Amino acid sequence: MKYKLLILSLFLFLVSPVLAQKLVPAKWSWTLEPAKPSVGQEAEIVFQVKIEKGWYLYSSDFDKDLGPVVTTVTIKNPVGFELVGGLKAINPHSKFDKEIWNGTYTYFTEKGEFRQKIKITAENWKIEGFYDSQACSNESGLCVPVKGPFVIASSAAASDVSTDEAKKKIPELSIEATASPVAPSESLWQFFWIAMGAGLLALLTPCVYPLIPMTVSFFTKQKGGKGLAFLYGSFIVLIYVFFGTLLAFFAGASFANFLSTHWIPNLLFFGIFIFFGISFLGAFEIVLPSGMVNSVDAKSDKGGIIGVFFMAFTLVLVSFSCTGPLAGSILIAASQGAFVKPIIGMLGFSLAFAIPFTLFAIFPGFMQKLPKSGNWMNEVKVVLGFLEIALAFKFLSVADQVYHWHLLDREIFLAIWIAIFGALTLYLFGKISLPHDGPSGKLSIPRTLFATAVLAFVVYLIPGMFGAPLKGLSGWLPPLSSQDFKGNSGEVTVKPGSTGVVKYGDFLELPLGLTGFFDYQEAKAYAAQVGKPLFIDFTGHGCVNCRKMEEYVWSDPKVLKRLQEEYVIVALYCDDKTELPADQWYISKVDGQEKKTLGDQNLDFQISRFNSNAQPHYVLLDPRKEGEPMVTPVAFDANVDHFVEFLDKGVRQYKMN
């Protein structure tokens, strides 16, 4: 029995560091190039980051208000040098995230690199500061702050700095990031298929469909056979891709974040989509100058390769009134992504045109099997018009959220979408008509089924007006916290404090209408007062999986009820940059650094008390005691039943104490 106890003790000793430990998913190093610069010479501080497999580190060159933690480097008062320009991230990846951040962010995997230019102004120089970044795991769902100090000094300066001088508080200078080229996004393949789908829809519009007989007639007169037909398709692709390349060149990835978050482009895109949508509904047509179209069409009569090129150009110009809004929509979406995204978008869109027209040019007999032109083509165009108008409000919503205008909160956005898709439902069922519609008759089966599907979507939206999370549209709708009324799902039975005013509650909030605290000591005192266990949520503004846990796990009625009724909640944001009053600063016993911000102090508390530095991290404590957590803390786990079991264990343990 003694041997068994000895083995068990040894096992627990060995595994305990694994069960609760600080993670170090990214390691920073730094050098100066050249290593020994002379006075007046420029040099570069090179920061290199080695990132563990399965993790990624947020970069420095995207909007800091987007959500994720932007990497920053802070330089203390420069000694013997001056900064030249801003911090540059070298070739990070780029991704547009709709589900959580609704914007474009940049990041590194495996390894990252940042560079900062300086100019040496004295023989004795010393570069001192600290870096602040965040790494997240795609596998475990955890996010970990990665920060620390760095020092690079000339040999003379390194030996001259006394201990007393090192302890002095000196001003700090934050290096602003500047944009740099980025690699393609992982979603390019998906975007390609979306663009191709838009091209296929454009084929069914009244501006494009009637051009098929013109194409067949042209190629029956040519003597080039299949070769000219393939060339025709290639020219269609090249013309569209040319415009995509122009956009990529003038508004590549360095401009993408501005387009995705700034109010000016988002309001511009909102107006463009409304303009496109009204055009599709039949109010007016977007046409190119007739002289330009006729001139290009006349050159197509020359025949041969030149004639084929101008025939393709004629197709693009003549169909512009229907394809322009769709192609423009693809280009607008592409302009908010990676450098190659506009090119990929136009490639997919144009292939949807090129392949069918090429096949009809080779096999003109196929034309006899096509359905005849008719009112159905205008119906397709009208449906696209409603969709364009609905999507327009997404751009307005982005600007509204980023700048906190509160013009388009969740319930207003939903009301607009319900009205738009409700009108589309009435149109599809034949209850309303628009200017270019033909005589109404019996509804076809496909139209009836599509109308029913749109009606089902409207029914799905309606509960959202009363607080339903509508998870399937989480990437498109404004956050639930922006909704003025949320029905019973947002009510909380336990109110913190008699006045409802909590520390930091003026700029921090809990999700799903929950009420709680943002300061540990305040929450602990209240929990002891009301006789409930304490639920600590170590979280972060830039923690993707913290948002996913809140949206997919916390929102479940079983979890939400327990959080509302059985616990006192305290959310400790470990990446919040709010600087606290100087009398609250302290030197950490963990790393010896001064903790000035709310986030730094919360993270230091998490590390020193629970030996963990990753978020999300959930801890259940008995506020009457200063001991260990009542049950083993948990991290990211999207299984609702697991989280319910975790909460129930905490309640049982609290009642036993």
UniProtKB/TrEMBL annotation:
<feature type="transmembrane region" description="Helical">
    <location>
        <begin position="263"/>
        <end position="284"/>
    </location>
</feature>
<keyword id="KW-1133">Transmembrane helix</keyword>
<feature type="domain" description="Cytochrome C biogenesis protein transmembrane">
    <location>
        <begin position="189"/>
        <end position="396"/>
    </location>
</feature>
<keyword id="KW-0472">Membrane</keyword>
<keyword id="KW-0201">Cytochrome c-type biogenesis</keyword>
<feature type="transmembrane region" description="Helical">
    <location>
        <begin position="449"/>
        <end position="470"/>
    </location>
</feature>
<feature type="transmembrane region" description="Helical">
    <location>
        <begin position="343"/>
        <end position="363"/>
    </location>
</feature>
<dbReference type="Pfam" id="PF13899">
    <property type="entry name" value="Thioredoxin_7"/>
</dbReference>
<feature type="transmembrane region" description="Helical">
    <location>
        <begin position="229"/>
        <end position="251"/>
    </location>
</feature>
<feature type="transmembrane region" description="Helical">
    <location>
        <begin position="412"/>
        <end position="429"/>
    </location>
</feature>
<feature type="transmembrane region" description="Helical">
    <location>
        <begin position="188"/>
        <end position="209"/>
    </location>
</feature>
<feature type="transmembrane region" description="Helical">
    <location>
        <begin position="305"/>
        <end position="331"/>
    </location>
</feature>
<dbReference type="Pfam" id="PF02683">
    <property type="entry name" value="DsbD_TM"/>
</dbReference>
<feature type="domain" description="Thiol:disulfide interchange protein DsbD N-terminal">
    <location>
        <begin position="39"/>
        <end position="150"/>
    </location>
</feature>
<dbReference type="InterPro" id="IPR036249">
    <property type="entry name" value="Thioredoxin-like_sf"/>
</dbReference>
<keyword id="KW-0732">Signal</keyword>
<keyword id="KW-0812">Transmembrane</keyword>
<protein>
    <submittedName>
        <fullName>Disulfide bond formation protein DsbD</fullName>
    </submittedName>
</protein>
<dbReference type="InterPro" id="IPR003834">
    <property type="entry name" value="Cyt_c_assmbl_TM_dom"/>
</dbReference>
<feature type="transmembrane region" description="Helical">
    <location>
        <begin position="383"/>
        <end position="406"/>
    </location>
</feature>
<dbReference type="InterPro" id="IPR028250">
    <property type="entry name" value="DsbDN"/>
</dbReference>
<dbReference type="Pfam" id="PF11412">
    <property type="entry name" value="DsbD_N"/>
</dbReference>
<feature type="signal peptide">
    <location>
        <begin position="1"/>
        <end position="20"/>
    </location>
</feature>
